[in-house]
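Thread: quick sanity check before group meeting

JM: Hey all, I'm pulling together slides for Thursday and realized we never actually wrote out the predicted structure for the chain we discussed last week. Dropping the sequence here so it's in one place. If anyone has concerns about the input, flag it before I start.
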Amino acid sequence: MSEMGKKTNGDKPAMQSDLVALRKATRADMQAMLDSGLAETKTLLRSEMDGMKKELKSDIARVAIGLVKTQSDLREVKENMFTKSDARVIVGSIDKLTQGLASYEYRLAVRKHQLNDHERRIRILERKPQA
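JM (edit): ok, ran it. Output follows.
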C-alpha cells in the first residue's frame, strides 16, 4: 500500500515533503500496476500467439495437402488431355482418308462405267446371230 494511506496530516496543509512522498508513492503504485498489467498482457499475447501458430500450422498443412492433390490431378490431366497437336494429327489423318476415299470413289465410278460398257457390248454380241 502507498505511503499516502499510512500517514495523514489531519487537517493541516500538506507540506512539500508530504507532496514528494505522495508523488513517490503514486509513481510506485502506478509502476506496480503497469508492470502487473504488462505481465498479464504479455502472458495473454503469448497464449494467443501460440494458438494462432497452431492454427496457422494446421492451415499450412491443409494447403500443402491440397496442393499435392492438385498437382497430382494436374499431372493426370496433362497426361490424358487432348491437345491442338493431337487434333491436327487426327484432322490430317481424316483429310488423307477422305482424299483416298474420293480417289477410290472416282476409280469405282470409272470401273462401273467400264463394266456397264462391257455388259452393253456383250448384250449386243449375244443378240447377233452366230454365223
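AS: nice. Residues 83-131 form one domain. The longest helix spans residues 16-80.
JM: adding both to the slides.
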